[in-house]
Model the fold of this input.
Amino acid sequence: MVILEDDRVLAELIRKRVNDIEGFESTHSFENPLAFLASDVPAEIILLDIVMPEMNGLDAIELILAKYPDAAIIMNTIRDDTETIFAALKKGALGYVDKQSFDIRLEEVLRIVSNGGAFMTPKIARNVINSFHQSHQDFEKLSQRERDVTNCILDGYSYKMIADKLDITVDIVRANIKSIYRKLNINSKGQLFNLAKKQFFR
Done:
């Protein structure tokens, strides 16, 4: 296992813990993703922090998988907000662990991921579930017309195309979008897409 962690003391503690687990070995750690990517160290499992110098862990995920497409990336971070969690999973991470729980869960995480599974510590899983519940409740506030307009926006329709499809005027489309943003407490189409990703609302 390769450890990407800018805290040298923590990285060494993790390396020793990994080497105490039967069937696993960690011989290399790097303080930032660029140093790792510049090396030729083989990697099957990568423990990846997010806040690091030169390049953060989220930006590194796709670069790492481009070089090591079969690698299993486990995020190990204090960042537990849902936006960061979803971003990491979308980019290809197979595990997400809050640092406070990592030492307790280390062997469990490694065995599950090495056997083809994915892993989130209970705290992270709870945050994800709460996010789904909240976004579901938010979308329930929309009227049927507003849901239809939302679907059209997610399909990339322009205001004119939405008006034609729903047989309404462009002014009514604008009014519906203004109401959608107000009810969902958002301000842009980008935020609507992010909220819809969590809910898979269609």
In short: The longest helix spans residues 122-139. The chain has a mean pLDDT of 86. The CA atoms of residues 105 and 122 lie 10 Å apart. The two ends are 40 Å apart (CA to CA).
